[in-house]
Amino acid sequence: MINKVVADADVAIADITDGKTLMLGGFGLCGIPENCIKSLVKKGVKELTCISNNAGVDDFGIGLMLQGKQVKKMVASYVGENAEFERQLLSGELEVELIPQGTLATRCLAAGYGMPAIFTPAGVGTEVAEGKEVRNFKGKDYLMEYAFDADFAIVKAWKGDTAGNLIFRSTSRNFNPIMAMAGKITIAEVEELVEVGELDPDHIHTPGIYVHRIFQGKDYEKRIEQRTVRSKA
User: Fold this and answer.
1) Phi, psi of 226 (to 5 degrees)
2) Which of 44, 100, 107, 155 has the least CB density, counted as fewest CB within 10 Å?
């Protein structure tokens, strides 16, 4: 069994250079690869294309990369919590491709399955369809959307083993498993790293065949993006 463990986030992302395309797992601030993002910020790599559900917030997650002007293009389905993102978009500093959330997920899946493209009804007749091929199947129009072509997928899991098998916890599962399948090189950071054989095979969400590097992360903040509580009676 191949041991895929690397020392830390700095080592894991060492060969990510300017101009690369990255997938980053997470939904809001839930299940984001915090350690790898911090290492990318520290390294200062530039001109990145980032594929993620959203752009984090101003002082956390991908928002830190936006502050450092490291992101050239953002491909996402939701971007509403980041003032710096809004500023860069309106000023023309940042290229943005907004994608329906289901289409984002399915383009990840297509890349993982080795499919070049998918057909979806989402976006037909809207700005999303501009410049894209439309085909009609059984009387209904569908957009052709290409599978993503990402140099790296960076994901965060709850537990993993030295062979790269991953288990995600609750809602942090979100985009992480499908992105783990889709990158040319997949990097996984985990809260708990164990030896091969310690994970129940029936509980593994992502088989290690998809993962190229794994390390145990540290100092996770696990912030809550929007805290909502009931008012006192």
Assistant:
1) -135, 110
2) 44
pLDDT at 12: 98
- Express each pLDDT in 123-137 by its tens digit: 999 999 999 999 999
- Name the amino acid, one letter, at 39: S
H/E segment holding residue 117: strand 117-120
Look at residue 98 and give its three-state secondary structure. Answer: strand
Q: Go through the domains of the chain in sequence order and give each one's CATH number.
A: 9-117+150-216 (3.40.1080.10)
Spatial strand order in the sheet of 140-146: 117-120, 140-146, 134-137
Query: Whole-model pTM?
Result: 0.92
